[in-house]
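Inverse folding, one chain.
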């Protein structure tokens, strides 16, 4: 993975990680920036994201994806990123937590082609990519954490992925402003275990992580 890293981007990432209290190795930080480089390159042809400037991708795609880490389990686990798109939050989380096994699910072939190329070039052996609709996906075992960055409203997210959650697992949905209305519309067989407010360096916007579990 021979990628020339922009010093300003490297400093921006390092400062952001420090501000969030995340300690990642220089190799991990290099992979995160290499991912931004791949995204910028592919975006010119495939329009994967409306954010085109690397200096905006660092806070909006990298730091935003990594912000939930302190609020998630610190042990090895299986995570599903639903509607992963161009790989957020899945790829940054996989780089930060090589002990996690992540599955990136998206029905868009163009996007999953990019995901497969990215994990190949970044040498991420803890990620698998699935091209399928979430309601049709039937893995052999469930996931301890199911996350999503911009897939659907909470009630729809829970409804479509209920068959994919392992016993005792949780949904960890990334949201912007506090989703009062979405929480109120959740079905009776689940409940909100907590909502964390997330601070993302360089991002002047609200971010929340909503933990949803099945009612026992």
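Residues assigned per position:
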């Amino acid at each position: 993975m021979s990628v020339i890293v922009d010093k300003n981007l490297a400093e921006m990432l390092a400062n952001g990680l420090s501000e969030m209290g995340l300690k990642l190795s220089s190799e991990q930080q290099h992979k995160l920036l290499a991912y931004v480089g791949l995204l910028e390159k592919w975006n010119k042809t495939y329009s994967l994201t409306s954010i085109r400037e690397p200096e905006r991708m660092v806070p909006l795609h990298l730091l935003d994806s990594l912000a939930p880490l302190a609020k998630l389990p610190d042990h090895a686990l299986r995570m599903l990123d639903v509607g992963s798109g161009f790989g957020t939050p899945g790829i940054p989380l996989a780089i930060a937590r090589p002990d996690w096994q992540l599955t990136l699910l998206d029905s868009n072939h163009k996007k999953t082609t990019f995901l497969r190329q990215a994990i190949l070039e970044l040498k991420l052996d803890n990620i698998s990519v699935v091209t399928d609709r979430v309601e049709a996906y039937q893995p052999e075992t469930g996931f301890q954490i199911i996350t999503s960055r911009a897939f659907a409203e909470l009630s729809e997210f829970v409804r479509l992925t209920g068959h994919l959650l392992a016993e005792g697992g949780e949904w960890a949905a990334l949201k912007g402003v506090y989703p009062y209305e979405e929480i109120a519309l959740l079905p009776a067989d689940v409940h909100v275990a907590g909502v964390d407010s997330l601070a993302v360096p360089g991002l002047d916007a609200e971010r929340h992580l909503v933990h949803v579990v099945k009612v026992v």
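The CA atoms of residues 83 and 106 lie 5 Å apart. The longest strand covers residues 165-175.
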